[in-house]
Automatic annotation (TrEMBL):
Domain HTH lacI-type, residue spans: 27-81
Name the record gives this protein: Substrate-binding domain-containing protein
Record CDD domains: HTH_LacI, PBP1_GntR
Classification of source organism: Bacteria, Pseudomonadati, Pseudomonadota, Betaproteobacteria, Burkholderiales
This protein's record includes keyword Transcription regulation: yes
SUPFAM superfamilies: lambda repressor-like DNA-binding domains, Periplasmic binding protein-like I
Pfam families: LacI, Peripla_BP_3
Organism: Paraburkholderia acidisoli
Region (Disordered): 1-25
Record's keyword terms, sorted: DNA-binding, Transcription, Transcription regulation
Bilayer-crossing regions: none
SMART domains in the record: HTH_LACI (SM00354)
GO MF, one example: transcription cis-regulatory region binding
Length: 348
């Protein structure tokens, strides 16, 4: 049997691949077809259903991909199939964040189902909410995961009109936009106040970031404990040095303070360092409780008592709910309260 020369010819050499990129701006299926001497349909089969083409053709296509650096056009593919496999998640901060477990779980669960996660950093300025949502909706993702709940009616209307499945996370509300997985920040503050009171605290103070969810925790702590509770608030995201400086200022102005509720574990670590520098016994002289149960919390001296949020569970549930809504048009459980756990250690 005589072979067609184009069936066995090797992919074009580097210069041809460079010409393809120069002419089109990016390497396309048509370029790969030209380089390998087969049809676009055959190239597509080799990339998406390799079992449907011969071993020889598959290797030629793969070699062409290696030479050209070709990557599939996912946007074009989603337009052709009327379905995107991109999910966008917005979190306030990346580094050192309590949201890292959620992001890791989201990434893994979505990938298993054939979806890719695009991560964006929204910051803590809620005034940017509408502009960010415009940028996301314009890219027509399959789903959106938000940190916190949407409060702007304009933003809620935009998302409803877009028809894109949305999961709000890490907060709770009676009127979720679509799907919701979270917990009550108010209850976190109440729990911290009751715990410190039961442990003998009489003159507590609060060290907290300044974002809305942290403020909910702080306000609930103050209301539950009663009396005048000094507050040292810093802009979000919080840093270790913020905790040190906040405790120093609080003790200088209110030397009777005997307990600190910290709105973030990283601030609690700074509080512990400042207490150690001042030779204050923790928890004898000063009780300290954090929020987040970050990976260092069990290794501080003393180990940090804190509020743990199951970020992994939030991520897994968010992925499952999104996939169900995307693929079936409905979600059986649209609102889940995951609660939280007070982790008792040595600092309080």
């Amino acid at each position: 049997m005589t072979k067609n020369p184009t069936d066995s010819a090797p992919p074009a050499a580097g210069p041809a691949a460079r010409r393809a990129r120069k002419n089109t701006g990016r390497v396309t299926l048509s370029d790969l077809a030209q380089l390998t001497g087969v049809t676009k349909v055959t190239v597509s089969r080799a990339l998406n259903n390799p079992e449907l083409v011969s071993v020889e053709t598959l290797e030629r296509v793969r070699e062409a991909v290696r030479q050209t650096g070709y990557t599939p056009d996912l946007i074009a593919g989603s337009l052709a199939s009327n379905r995107s496999h991109l999910v966008v998640a917005l979190i306030p901060a990346m580094a050192g964040s309590v949201f890292q477990e959620t992001v890791a779980a989201l990434t893994a669960e979505l990938a298993t189902a054939g979806y890719q996660l695009l991560l964006g950093q929204s910051g803590y300025d809620e005034s940017r909410e509408e502009a960010l949502l415009d940028a996301i909706i314009g890219r027509r993702p399959a789903g959106i995961v938000l940190t916190g709940v949407i409060h702007s009616e304009a933003s809620r209307q935009k998302l409803r009109a877009a028809g894109i499945p949305v999961v709000e996370t890490w907060d709770i509300t009676r009127s979720p936009l679509d799907m919701l997985i979270g917990f009550s920040h108010t209850r976190v503050g109440e729990t911290a106040a009751n715990y410190l009171r039961e442990r003998g605290a009489r003159h507590p103070a609060i060290v907290t970031p300044g974002d809305r969810r942290a403020k909910l925790r702080a306000d609930a702590f103050i209301e539950t404990f009663g009396g005048n509770v000094p507050v040292a608030a810093t802009p979000s995201p919080a840093h270790l040095g913020d905790g040190r400086r906040a405790l120093a200022k609080l003790l200088d102005e209110h030397p009777q303070i005997d307990a600190i509720f910290c709105g973030a574990d990283i601030m609690a670590l700074g509080v512990l360092m400042e207490a150690h520098a001042r030779q204050l016994d923790v928890p004898g002289r000063l009780k300290v409780i954090g929020y987040g149960d970050q990976n260092f919390a069990g290794d501080t001296e003393p180990a940090l008592t804190t509020i743990r949020i199951d970020g992994t569970r939030i991520g897994k549930l968010a992925a499952a709910m999104l996939i169900e809504k995307i693929e079936t048009g409905a979600c059986k459980r649209a609102k889940i309260d995951v609660g939280f756990t007070l982790i008792e250690r040595g600092s309080a």
